[in-house]
Amino acid sequence: xxxxxxxxxxxxxxxxxxxxxxxxxxxxxxxxxxxxxxxxxxxxxxxxxxxxxxxxxxxxxxxxxxxxxxxxxxxxxxxxxxxxxxxxxxxxxxxxxxxxxxxxxxxxxxxxxxxxxxxxxxxxxxxxxxxxxxxxxxxxxxxxxxxxxxxxxxxxxxxxxxxxxxxxxxxxxxxxxxxxxxxxxxxxxxxxxxxxxxxxxxxxxxxxxxxxxxxxxxxxxxxxxxxxxxxxxxxxxxxxxxxxxxxxxxxxxxxxxxxxxxxxxxxxxxxxxxxxxxxxxxxxxxxxxxxxxxxxxxxxxxxxxxxxxxxxxxxxxxxxxxxxxxxxxxxxxxxxxxxxxxxxxxxxxxxxxxxxxxxxxxxxxxxxxxxxxxxxxxxxxxxxxxxxxxxxxxxxxxxxxxxxxxxxxxxxxxxxxxxxxxxxxxxxxxxxxxxxxxxxxxxxxxxxxxxxxxxxxxxxxxxxxxxxxxxxxxxxxxxxxxxxxxxxxxxxxxxxxxxxxxxxxxxxxxxxxxxxxxxxxxxxxxxxxxxxxxxxxxxxxxxxxxxxxxxxxxxxxxxxxxxxxxxxxxxxxxxxxxxxxxxxxxxxxxxxxxxxxxxxxxxxxxxxxxxxxxxxxxxxxxxxxxxxxxxxxxxxxxxxxxxxxxxxxxxxxxxxxxxxxxxxxxxxxxxxxxxxxxxxxxxxxxxxxxxxxxxxxxxxxxxxxxxxxxxxxxxxxxxxxxxxxxxxxxxxxxxxxxxxxxxxxxxxxxxxxxxxxxxxxxxxxxxxxxxxxxxxxxxxxxxxxxxxxxxxxxxxxxxxxxxxxxxxxxxxxxxxxxxxxxxxxxxxxxxxxxxxxxxxxxxxxxxxxxxxxxxxxxxxxxxxxxxxxxxxxxxxxxxxxxxxxxxxxxxxxxxxxxxxxxxxxxxxxxxxxxxxxxxxxxxxxxxxxxxxxxxxxxxxxxxxxxxxxxxxxxxxxxxxxxxxxxxxxxxxxxxxxxxxxxxxxxxxxxxxxxxxxxxxxxxxxxxxxxxx
Length: 1012
Description:
Blueprint: H1 8-17, H2 31-42, H3 44-47, H4 63-67, H5 85-91, H6 110-121, H7 152-163, H8 174-185, H9 192-199, H10 206-215, H11 218-231, H12 249-260, H13 265-274, H14 283-288, H15 305-323, H16 344-351, E1 368-369, H17 373-394, H18 398-410, E2 419-421, E3 423-428, E4 433-436, E5 442-445, E6 452-460, E7 465-472, E8 495-500, E9 503-504, E10 507-512, E11 543-553, E12 559-567, E13 577-583, H19 598-604, H20 613-624, H21 631-650, E14 653-654, E15 665-666, E16 680-681, H22 701-708, H23 716-729, H24 750-762, H25 767-776, H26 778-781, H27 788-793, E17 806-807, H28 810-821, H29 876-880, H30 899-907, H31 909-925, H32 930-942, H33 948-966, H34 969-976, H35 989-1003, E18 1010-1011
Antiparallel strand pairs: 1-14, 2-13, 3-6, 4-5, 5-13, 6-12, 7-11, 7-13, 8-9, 8-12, 10-11, 15-16, 17-18
């Protein structure tokens, strides 16, 4: 019987019906291919790895369980079906003896029973599950000389074709090949010039040179990253609850660079799982370790910290299990695996590797600044320049000593001259009346709201302002004479926000002549609305708050300030009478009584002859911070500090792995995070996959990473080359890309898979080399066109007698349209961007509420890879074409075909604008007549010549559209103004609109969004 490849639910249905087994009536039965799937589907649930669900203490998933005698019966007696208890039970007509029992809902087909009988008759050979045996290099098949065979990949494929009496398809034409290669390796279509160059290249190595050029393109890393980011569930938002934003794009750029630089996959693995643990870890390796932080996290105030730590730990086990091992380890969170040799203890022991990660259980995760090389260099130069001035400021001189002595005599207390600022506008948010008095103060009268915000505007001819003073003043009109409007004369000022020309001012100090206990003045500039400044018990008297600016204000000779006084304490605790003033006095600028730090004031209060050497040094150091002679150095230093802070603000942040003391990990019975009765476990790997030798210390993530890419690991190399095969052929050699276990599908070409895995490891885990090997093969170069007989004999293309054809991934559908329209911005890397999205789509994003603000300019035309990935509200265009929300690992996206996709291609502004730009390109470069333009359009969009019937159809369309649109100028204007790109003024509007209609048709063709 022929083998039919399938995946997901289809695979389960086929296994249940007995159609998945490749052995024909006269063929040898293979245990792994033919028998294990039957046992896994119908027997393992009760007689498999799960010890808690196992019946009669009988295991049928192990060699001992199958062949050992138990209670005078042996499940399998090689060569003797009639003495084999398993066979007798599945053929029994006695309902009490028959297996599987009817209540299990499982049953065997006649074909499956026959397979079991033949297997036993043929000797009942047992094999360990193919995926858990370390791969060894199989011999390359001897298939004779054939023009089809270009490399060893073809030999393995031809062997299977010969066995089934199939012949490979002819090679695709060159235009198809370059488009296929470009889409597979770059995710972008080739330009018409690239197509013509390749089609006309007569060199014998033209195809290989094309492959090398594409692999060397910076867009190769982008194409590979699209797939990898699905695996590791990369997103720009946290996921749970409010799904707030976070910065992680540096990790995405790392992935792009790693693939572009052809980083060996073993190193790629190690740096992601444990880059932070490598000796002298670089910033790049720390960014890579951000893989450990890509999971969903919560900021919900009422969330249980312990519950979410359990969620995070379990998520990491599932993800590593899926990404590198193609194993459903997640099944073991609550119970032993029912089909594969993984126990609950394995799950939690694996989880323990990640117990050292520093993270918040609940709340916004701490971002880490990672400067670029250029930023590092600039910061180093600023530090060096600052060091020169700091050295001068730190060096005592006789001149400074003399000046200090004079200061101690006359300058211990100094007068600061303040100039009153009279507001040009003063408003209350909640209805109080703010009256500007003759002395420049402001008095609040009338309505006294529970809480309020005052907004004041000041303009003055002042420059070199170093400080600002807020005086809160008593007044007889206020309760208890104020200065507050509360019944006791107090107020609570939560926050003061002062901006110069719209830019918030940064203060170097905030001092006051008095603060109430628990309500220090520093609270009003801490950015925390829940804290504030108050005065009890000193009400009914004036009090000052003084703000010293980090850099001088009024730099253009005039001062323009906006001040917000935010008072949200409630119970009418608002300010009733106040005044603002400014000064240009030399720093420090402090409130009276707070002129000098306490330690300095104490030293000044001590007679000079009684001071200790340490006090003298301390006082001299302080004096140098205020000495007039050093003001130029201080100003220069302040300016350099300003530049450094500005630069530091531009440094991107990301999440990285940071080490903390390992948390205790215990087995959680049934996965219940409240149950602490399970045993404590240490980090180790599942015993069924090998062992890890660590002497006299706890195993780390670095040990785990190195174990994953060890030469004898049975899964990692197989899993990754299988996914590379999927990228080149549309489906894997193992179609269940996410599951290499007993419930997964049997590889169609097991020897080829092992040969590729060993070749991959032996050649240095070289990703580009492996892909090149695949795409250079004749198997890859075949036409995807299949005749009817081949469709009937191999509907799923399991045996590769043709190439595959499939719709492009969501990001590439849009990239393709932008590229065809000439709009695509080719920049590689950088922060995520926000292309057009329907208004109100984010209306239900709360805590806080958010609005989506689309980008404009070049960012609007970045590749889909860079689109902002909001997990709970994924960009609708991507969602329509089956992109993943990336809440969990997605190994293989579904490919649906829905009317919504056609609506997106027709109406999404990105596609309408791309069609309009494409039409402009066609009109300008396609020639003067319609047939020439249509031919040009097909070259650009599909890399092929147009057929006569297509020309005739599209000619009629453009003629009809031209006629209709000339009579509808409003419709023309509306169409030509979709998107940011301006409509050209030198092309007739109706003509351009007519060709836009043609362009929309071409962009909507199945062929345009299909790789074949």
